[in-house]
Specification:
Low-confidence stretches: 243-259
Largest sheet: 7 strands, mixed
Number of strands: 16
Shape: elongated
Structural class: alpha/beta
Strand order of the largest sheet: 3-6-9-12-14-15-16
Helix content: 25-40%
Mean pLDDT: 80
Number of helices: 6
Radius of gyration: 25 Å
Strand content: 5-15%
C-alpha cells in the first residue's frame, strides 16, 4: 500500500509540472498546491472507504475540505496523474469515476441527479479537461480526450474527442484526433448558436433579395402567393446552396458537406467543420 501510494504521489507531482507553468519546484508544489493535497487526502480516504471505515473516511474528507476548499467524496474513484488546478469550490460526488491524466479547474462539479442508490455521478475518461465552473451532472460519460468549456452545464454523454460549450452543453465532435497531451486551449471554443443564427440571417437576406428581384408582385397573404413563394424558395435553395465567401466550407478548402448550414446530427451533436475549435 505504501509503495503504491508514494508512486501515485510521484505521478501526481509530475502532472503539476506538465500542466501548470507557474510550478517552479517540487518543494513549492508540496507546500502550496491545495489541489494536490486534496487528491492525496482522497487517496487515503478512499482506502478507508474500501475497507468499510466509512465514518472515518467521511470525517477525514471533511477535514481535507476545510483545509483545501475541495470536496471529494471518499467513494469516488480517481485515476493516476489527476490534477486539480486552483481547486476552490470543486465538488466530486460518491459514484464519480475519473480516468488518467484528467485536469479540473476551480468551481467544477461532478454531481448526481438522482436520489436512487447506485451509479448517479459522471464518468470522465482519460485525458479529459474540464474548464472553470463547469457542471457535469448525472450518470453520463465524458469521452476520452474531450474538453469541457468554462461554465458549461453537461447533462448528456459526450463522445470521445469532443468540445462542449454552453448551457445546456452543446457537443461539437472533432473531425481530427487530438494528441495525448491535455487540451488546455480554453479560449478556442465554438459559438454554436451564434454562428448558426448569423448564417441563417445571411441566408434569409439573400433569399429575400433573390425573391424581390425575380418574383412578380401578387396579393400579399393570398394562398396563391404563399404557394408561389414556397415553390420559389424550394427551387432557389436547391439551385443556390449557401457557400462561404471563399467558395469552400471545410477547414482546409474542402467542398461543402451535405448540409451547408451549421447543423446537429441525429444524435444532437455538432461537428468541427462548422466551427473553429
Amino acid at each position: 500500500m505504501a509503495i503504491k501510494f508514494f508512486r501515485l504521489m510521484r505521478e501526481d507531482n509530475r502532472s503539476v509540472f506538465e500542466r501548470d507553468t507557474a510550478a517552479r519546484s517540487t518543494f513549492e508544489i508540496l507546500v502550496s498546491y491545495p489541489g494536490l493535497h486534496a487528491v492525496w487526502g482522497h487517496r487515503i480516504t478512499h482506502w478507508m472507504w474500501k475497507r468499510n471505515m466509512k465514518t472515518l473516511a467521511r470525517w477525514t474528507s471533511h477535514i481535507m475540505r476545510f483545509l483545501t476548499g475541495i470536496e471529494i467524496h471518499p467513494g469516488a474513484t480517481l485515476g493516476d496523474s489527476f490534477f486539480i488546478d486552483h481547486g476552490m469550490g470543486v465538488v466530486i460526488g460518491e459514484t464519480a469515476e475519473v480516468g488518467k491524466n484528467v485536469t479540473l479547474y476551480h468551481g467544477v462539479t461532478l454531481g448526481g441527479t438522482s436520489l436512487a442508490k447506485g451509479k448517479r455521478h459522471p464518468t470522465l475518461e482519460d485525458n479529459v479537461v474540464v474548464g472553470a465552473g463547469a457542471k457535469i451532472l448525472g450518470a453520463i460519460t465524458i469521452g476520452e480526450g474531450s474538453r469541457i468549456g468554462a461554465n458549461a452545464v453537461v447533462v448528456k454523454s459526450v463522445p470521445p474527442n469532443s468540445v462542449v460549450v454552453g448551457v445546456p452543453g452543446q457537443v461539437v465532435v472533432r473531425t481530427q484526433p487530438h494528441d495525448a497531451s491535455p487540451d488546455l486551449n480554453h479560449s478556442n471554443l465554438p459559438d454554436t448558436i451564434g454562428n448558426t443564427v448569423a448564417v441563417l440571417v445571411e441566408r434569409v437576406e439573400s433569399l429575400e433579395r433573390a425573391l424581390k428581384a425575380g418574383v412578380p408582385h401578387t396579393l400579399v397573404g393570398s394562398s396563391d402567393r404563399i404557394e408561389q413563394l414556397e415553390s420559389e424558395l424550394r427551387v432557389h435553395m436547391l439551385d443556390h446552396p449557401h457557400i462561404p465567401a471563399n467558395g469552400k466550407n471545410g477547414k482546409n478548402g474542402t467542398e461543402p458537406h451535405e448540409h451547408a448550414l451549421p447543423h446537429r446530427d441525429d444524435q444532437g451533436y455538432w461537428h468541427e467543420q462548422d466551427f473553429t475549435i
